[in-house]
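Memo subject: From amino acid sequence to C-alpha cells
Keywords: amino acid chain, backbone geometry, C-alpha cells, three-dimensional fold.
Body of memo: The sequence and its C-alpha cells, given next.
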Amino acid sequence: MKNKDGKLDLLKSYTLEEVKDDIIGKKGTPDRDAYESQLRHDLMEEARKRTPKRKWTT
C-alpha cells in the first residue's frame, strides 16, 4: 500500500480487510464479489473433501 508520496509504506501494519480492499477492491465491487464467491466455493469444496465418507451398512 502506498503513502501520499506514492511510495510503499513498509513500517505501517494493515488489516486483512485493508489489504483486500487495496488489491481486490472494496466490498460490493464485481471483482471483490467474484473473489468472495470463489473463496466460499473453494472452502466448501475443501471441507467436503475432508469429510469422511459414510458407509451405509444394514
Observations:
- The mean pLDDT is 88.
